[in-house]
Design brief:
Strand order of the largest sheet of chain A: 3-5-4
Structural class of chain A: mainly alpha
GO biological process, one term (chain B): formation of cytoplasmic translation initiation complex
Low-confidence stretches of chain B: 440-445
Radius of gyration of chain A: 40 Å
Number of strands of chain A: 5
Low-confidence stretches of chain A: 1-47, 168-273, 283-310, 531-548, 892-933
Distance between the termini of chain B: 81 Å
Shape of chain A: elongated
Mean pLDDT of chain B: 80
Largest interface: A-B, 39 and 38 residues
Oligomer: heterodimer
Structural class of chain B: mainly alpha
Largest sheet of chain A: 3 strands, antiparallel
Strand order of the largest sheet of chain B: 1-3-2
Keywords (chain B): Cytoplasm, Initiation factor, Protein biosynthesis
Distance between the termini of chain A: 68 Å
Protein name (chain B): Eukaryotic translation initiation factor 3 subunit E
Mean pLDDT of chain A: 69
Organism (chain B): Dinothrombium tinctorium
Number of strands of chain B: 3
Subcellular location (chain B): Cytoplasm
Radius of gyration of chain B: 30 Å
Chain lengths: 933, 445
């Protein structure tokens, strides 16, 4: 029964006491225990928030319970210490009692005193028994009697009152006795009852406790409303019973039918009947509530606040003013986190309160204040961080957020802010002031929205349904932004926060208008420079209106620019700025603004320190980088595209690095880690197509690698440009039989093979065909442009590969023929060949008059190549020798050596540590980046 | 041909007085409307104290109108102020000319010490020092640059580098020297200022960037007038500093972020530089990187030549370059040098990739007549800068083959090996003999 460990202290105590009384209850079935464990845990979490009073009373309760147990076994010496503890505890509780109960001593305490008195009197009378007592006990008895007499004098009047009306306490006594399970049966009237309950007890302490109480409540409910109230207050006196009831309620709500089912099996049918009755009563209560509503007299049948008076709505005659509503609101809000309050009740009450305030026209400030409360309550509804809101809740939340923003905009005279103290709030002056921060609530709402999307299956219609709310969320954010922007209502940091929120909803969205605008601008520029003003005028005439309208229409890019620039200038938390930069890069890259995106990336120097930042930021970084790579590819900057995508693709963990899904079996993860990772995942609509990504990467790798392979056929020092591309090639070669390409990868591999021998047409057909179009290329914004670029690149690189591969066969080649072969312009061929000659990749020179390329017999034959390699190797050997010598020679040789080793270690550590960053983007890489331009 | 004109871009980063010189140049060049220029000049002068100059301009602009009264008022105000400032600075100057003081100046290096000395012995106050700076500024505003320079150099002696006016002092001094066309002094001041900016720890990155941008622009005056200016220009932008430096090439960075138009001057400097090949690669990188924000015929020329190997395009651009040079204040003197070097550069690359070139084509590419071209090539061959022969019958230039045979390669590769091994064995032998002696040495101590 591991769950026992989680139990609160005094519970286990009572249990041990229970075992002392020799009743070894049959242990319930394990399934039941787990159910209890859950509720126990719940208790534990809820316990955190507790008033002083509650704590003290609980303490007292525990003492009393103990005392009673001792009473039953007549262990008087222990009773003495127990009594002393009790009085001490009461002393401690005194200030609280003074405050909360106006100095009236709680009834249960008095009752305990009375009982104790009776007991002592009984024992004292029983001379026989007294003689048989141990010496210790009889001594204690005498002291206790003395003490008690003295002590009770202080409470004389209360005790008298209690004795006059002891009946009332009967139920409670009953309850208590049940809980401690008196075999003893010092009071006869309980015997029957106890016998009946005994069976229940066999289940579990907790359960029967609440069952017992069910009994009580059953009888109670049949009583008049007045006694109902009283019962409530009495119950609240009972710290322990409070808890039980709330926990039972909890499991009822959460465990539901399954639990009840189990229970039926183990328990008696009686119980279920009771339960049913109880349910009925609840419903009745609900009905009554409705009636009350109609009457305008609100009386809640909640389980009551701990304060003793339950937070009920106003009575009929009560005047509804700002003050009273605020007070009520405070009461309702104070219920938060308390045990017996169900959160949905709280929300309902708040909504009601809102209606009342509306009905009495308490003004917008009041409305805002209450809506604040409602939204906060809605967002607090779930205690569990990882689970998301229920759809109904979410819709409600959205509605209230909307209403909040609406009210704020409609009433600009209201000042809200976290810095406004609750005391200085004003609801009826014209200068309204309300405490609270709309921004924080909206931020939390946004988080909740993400959570909901995460929890929804991305391929179900539900997801689309939820995604429709995105629009609403954006609208709310936009309006709040408007609100904060006007009249400088928000501080700069607040503005930064709302901007980043807005950016977060904007940056991944594609805006076709950006392209249209770009086109128009280009047209205009062209017209300007060419001086064809006539044409311009004609164009202007034709769609003057449209153009004017659209020109002034803000595209998402302009919006991003504006907001990001504000953040760059004003933000002082580094994180928001970094996030803004990354989103800005992403957005630029998405809209083909390659240079801007690249410059922003380079200028931000994020490559160096991104691995120090938190993981969500690294994810955004990865996304921005990938988008940059795709953009570079569209622009035909293959090298950049490759280097950008390399980091993400190299380990084949793109999915994880972009937070678009968890890898099934990676290294061992604890459930918490997994939960964390799950929470980081992006909602589906933000995903970047992974196949597109991989294809672009592989094609770029192909374009870079294949000519390189062709050039360095014999060289040993050939550096691998892309490992994963090689992996694909190798996989293909390992296959015994290579069929027609099916998947995207196979296509690329087949294309690579074609390119290797300079067969550009085959290469093109492998890369660009219907299958690949539908799979990959059509995903780009302007697929035709991309394809065009790609074909051009394929031609060029094939030409290079061809020249590398076959140059040793030729003595001279005509440029014209080459141009024809590869369907390229002569100038392009010339330029490519010139570049190769300059870079000394091709040992040849051009013969200008005849337009031919003349090879110099420099491509070494096999044996020559090998001997050159040999020479290289011998050279390195010599170098190594010299290095060794230098190290030996150097007095600090060993030291520097150690340092070197240390460095290496560190590097290794970094590599492990990198996690989401994967590859160290050090200085060298940036410089590489720059050289690649 | 106002398209490639940069004055409006440069002007943003220059002092008023420096811009005036640019405007003077432009009005002599007559590519803009004279009237507009004069208007601009007048606007500029309004905020200076050079009233007489302003009056001149005004008269030129409106020859038939009488001068507005504000000019005279201003002049009176300026004169009065000048007088007042002179009386204020008089005591300081009086102190400084005393013999013992000048001695002290020569001996003490530390400005603090000097200031303390003067404070004790001559009653110098910090207010007086500040007034010295103020009057220097005023002199400068009036166009009396030599006076300003004098005041400023005295002022610098008296203030510590942490003084609020120290930076302004440096800038003022540099401006004065530039305007007096004292290039040696200007260079000295420039270096001082550059050191100060690079090492001053309290600039925010943005301020630093701004300071550097200004410095770059001001330095153009020096670099294109000083004899060694171009070397320094290249040094400033392209030399990589020691690797431990935090920021590599900060000035190039500034150019890339704020003022890509400076690339024009850098390109010119590199092409006219005798060791251009070393820098070319780097330059091409920069040009390509910034091609979307800045391009003009000069950068395009380089791009055509070094990236696309489009010789025809390069030729076209080279022709356009002439216009650019004619309209650029800084470059106008370099035109011929640039054209010659560019030609040579084209030819170099051409020779690298060709084996056989017809002279006619070459002449076309080099923008020369065939006879000129032939003479030019003959000269190059004679000066042994080119391994080539002319086939006069076909009108071809045939390059000497520079291909290396594998055997040659092999020999090259293994040649050094023997010597290296020899050295190594020698060393080892030496070492084998020395240990005992070394031990003796230790024991002796």
């Amino acid at each position: 029964m591991s769950s026992r460990f989680f139990k609160p202290q005094f519970d286990s105590e009572s249990e041990s006491d229970e075992s002392e009384t020799d009743i070894q209850p049959q242990r319930p079935a394990p399934a039941v225990t787990t159910a209890y464990a859950f509720s126990d845990e719940e208790e534990e979490t809820k316990r955190v928030v507790r008033t002083e009073k509650e704590k003290r009373y609980e303490e007292l309760g525990a003492y009393i319970k103990q005392l009673k147990n001792h009473m039953k076994i007549k262990d008087i010496s222990k009773m003495l210490t127990g009594f002393e503890n009790l009085t001490k505890g009461f002393l401690k509780a005194k200030p609280v009692i003074e405050k909360e109960e106006n100095g009236i001593t709680p009834r249960f305490y008095i009752r305990c005193l009375v009982e104790l008195e009776d007991f002592i009197a009984d024992v004292w009378e029983d001379r026989e028994g007294r003689k048989n007592m141990s010496k210790n006990n009889s001594k204690s008895l005498a002291t206790l009697r003395q003490k008690l007499r003295k002590y009770n004098k202080d409470f004389e009047s209360e005790i008298l009152m209690y004795r006059e009306n002891p009946d009332e306490a009967k139920d409670e006594e009953e309850e208590d006795d049940e809980s401690v399970e008196s075999d003893d049966g010092s009071e006869n009237r309980f015997l029957t009852k106890a016998a009946k309950v005994k069976d229940d007890l066999k289940l579990d302490d907790d359960k029967d406790f609440d069952l017992g109480k069910d009994d009580v409540s059953k009888s109670k409910f049949l009583k008049s409303a007045a006694s109902d109230d009283e019962k409530e207050s009495d119950e609240s006196d009972w710290g322990s019973s409070d808890e039980e009831s709330s926990s039972s309620e909890d499991y009822e709500n959460q465990e539901g039918a399954a639990f009840r089912f189990l229970k039926k099996e183990t328990g008696e049918t009686k119980e279920s009947k009771k339960r049913e009755r109880k349910m009925k009563e609840r419903k009745e209560g609900g009905k009554r509530k409705v009636e009350d509503d109609e009457e305008g007299e609100w009386e809640r049948v909640t389980r009551g606040g701990i304060i003793g008076e339950k937070p009920k709505m106003f009575t009929k005659d009560e005047e509804i003013t700002h003050v009273s509503v605020v007070k009520k609101l405070g009461e309702i809000l104070a219920m938060r986190g308390k045990k017996r309050i169900h959160r949905s009740d709280q929300i309902e009450m708040l909504t009601e309160l809102l209606e009342i305030s509306e009905a009495h026209k308490l003004g917008p400030a009041m409305r805002i204040k209450i809506i604040f409360g409602i939204i906060a309550a809605l967002l607090d509804y779930n205690t569990n961080m990882s689970s998301c809101m229920k759809p109904e809740m979410w819709e409600k939340c959205l509605e209230f957020c909307n209403r909040l923003v609406e009210t704020l905009i409609a009433h600009p005279e209201i000042a809200i802010g976290e810095n406004i103290a609750e005391e200085s709030e004003s609801f009826n002056n014209p200068t309204f002031r309300v405490h609270g921060c709309a921004l924080t609530l909206i931020e939390r709402m946004d988080e909740e929205f993400t959570k909901i999307l995460q929890a929804t299956d991305a391929h179900s219609p539900d997801y689309i349904e939820r995604l429709k709310d995105e629009k609403k969320v954006c609208y709310i954010i936009e309006r709040l932004q408007c609100y904060l922007e006007t009249d400088q209502r928000g501080t700069s940091s607040e503005l930064c926060r709302i901007y980043i929120l807005h950016i977060d909803h904007l940056y991944y969205k594609f805006d076709t208008q950006v392209f249209e605008q770009k086109k128009r601008k280009n047209l205009k520029n062209a017209a300007d420079t060419n001086g064809f003003q006539k044409i311009e005028i004609v164009i202007a005439d034709k769609d003057e209106n449209v153009e004017d309208n659209e020109e002034f229409k803000e595209t998402s890019l302009d919006l991003m620019n504006k907001m990001c620039k504000y953040i760059y200038a004003k933000d002082n938390t580094d994180r928001i700025r970094t996030q803004a930069i990354l989103c800005h890069i992403y957005h630029h890259a998405l809209h083909d603004n390659w240079f801007e995106a690249r410059d922003l990336m380079l200028m931000s120097h994020l490559q160096h320190n991104i691995h120090k930042s938190d993981i969500p930021l690294q994810i955004i970084y990865n996304r921005a980088l990938v988008q940059l790579g795709l953009c570079a590819f569209r622009h035909g900057n293959i090298k950049d595209a490759h280097s950008d995508l390399l980091d993400i693709q190299i380990l084949g963990r793109a999915k994880e690095l972009l937070a678009q899904g968890l890898l099934p079996k990676q290294q061992e993860r604890t459930p918490e880690q997994e939960k964390l990772e799950k929470r980081r995942l992006l909602p589906f609509h933000k995903h970047i197509n992974l196949e597109l990504l991989e294809c672009v990467y592989l094609v770029s790798a192909m374009l870079l690698e294949i000519p390189d392979v062709a050039a360095n056929e014999y060289s040993v020092r050939k550096k691998m440009i892309s490992r994963s591309f090689y992996n694909q090639l190798r996989k293909n070669e390992e296959q015994p039989l290579v069929g027609l390409p099916e998947s995207m990868r196979e296509h690329v591999v087949a294309a690579s093979k074609a390119m290797r021998v300079g067969n550009w047409k085959a290469c093109r057909d492998f890369i660009i065909n219907d299958k690949m179009n539908s799979k990959v290329w059509n995903l780009f914004h302007q697929p035709d442009k991309v394809r065009e670029m790609l074909v051009q690149k394929i031609r060029e690189e094939s030409l290079r590969a061809y020249l590398f591969t076959y140059s040793h066969i030729y003595d001279s080649i005509s440029l014209l023929i080459l141009a024809e072969m590869f369907d390229l312009e002569k100038a392009t061929v010339h330029s490519i060949i010139s570049k190769m000659i300059i870079n000394e990749e091709l040992m040849a020179s051009l013969d200008e008059p005849t337009q031919t390329l003349i090879m110099h017999r420099t491509e070494p034959s096999r044996i020559q190549g090998l001997s050159l390699q040999l020479a290289d190797k011998v050279n390195t050997l010599v170098e190594h020798n010299e290095k060794t010598w230098e190290l030996k020679q150097n007095t600090f040789g060993s030291q520097s050596n150690r340092m070197f080793g240390g460095n290496r270690d560190q590097q290794g550590y970094q590599r492990q540590d990198r996690g989401y960053m994967d590859r160290n983007r050090d200085q060298r890489r940036t410089s590489q980046y720059r050289t690649n331009q | 041909m106002a398209k490639w004109e940069l004055t409006s871009r440069l002007g943003k980063f220059l002092d008023r007085h420096l811009v005036l010189t640019l405007l003077e140049f432009l009005s002599s060049n007559q590519i803009y409307d004279e009237k507009e220029l004069l208007l601009g000049k007048l606007e500029m002068l309004k905020n200076t104290n050079m009233i007489d100059f302003a009056i001149d301009v005004y008269k030129k602009l409106y020859p038939d109108q009488t001068l507005p009264a504000e000019f005279f008022e201003n002049r009176q105000r300026v004169v009065a102020e000048l007088k007042e400032l002179e009386t204020q600075t008089q005591p300081v100057l009086a102190i400084l000319v005393q013999d013992d003081v000048s001695q002290q100046i020569a001996t003490t290096r530390d400005s603090r010490q000097l200031f303390d000395y003067l404070k004790v012995n001559h009653g110098l106050t910090s207010e007086m020092v500040d007034s010295l700076y103020k009057s220097a500024k005023f002199q400068y505003e009036c166009g009396n640059y030599s006076g300003a320079a004098q005041y400023l150099s005295s002022h610098r002696l008296l203030v510590s580098p942490n003084d609020k006016n120290y930076l302004s002092n440096l800038w003022g001094k540099l401006a004065s020297e530039i305007l007096m066309q004292q290039w040696e002094n200007a260079l000295e001041d420039f270096n001082r200022l550059r050191d100060y900016i690079d090492n001053y720890p309290y600039f925010t990155p943005l301020q630093l960037l701004q300071q550097r941008t200004w410095l770059i622009h001001w330095s153009l005056f020096i670099y294109f007038n000083h004899t060694q200016g171009k070397d320094m220009l290249i040094d400033m932008f392209l030399e990589r500093k020691a690797p431990f430096q935090k920021q590599q090439q900060p000035y190039l960075n500034a150019v890339q972020t704020i003022c890509p138009h400076i690339i024009r001057y850098l390109t010119t400097a590199v092409i006219t530089h005798r060791r251009r090949r070393e820098y070319m690669k780097e330059l091409v990188k920069v040009i390509q990187q910034e091609s979307y924000t800045y391009r003009d015929p000069i950068t395009e020329f380089v791009e055509c030549l070094c990236v696309n190997f489009d010789f025809d395009g390069a030729q076209k651009k080279l022709r356009e370059c002439v216009d650019v040079f004619n309209n650029d204040f800084f470059l106008i003197a370099l035109q011929d040098e640039f054209i010659e070097n560019a030609r040579l550069f084209v030819f170099e690359i051409f020779c690298q990739i060709h084996e056989c070139i017809s002279i006619n084509m070459l002449a076309d590419k080099l923008n020369m007549t065939p006879e000129e071209a032939e003479r030019w090539i003959v000269n190059l061959i004679r000066q042994a800068r080119l391994d080539a022969k002319i086939d006069s019958k076909l009108g071809h230039v045939v390059m000497g083959t520079q291909a290396v045979s594998p055997y040659q390669q092999l020999i090259e590769k293994t040649k050094a090996m023997a010597i290296r091994c020899h050295v190594l064995t020698m060393n080892i032998e030496k070492r084998l003999q020395t240990p005992e002696r070394a031990q003796w040495g230790v024991t002796e101590i």
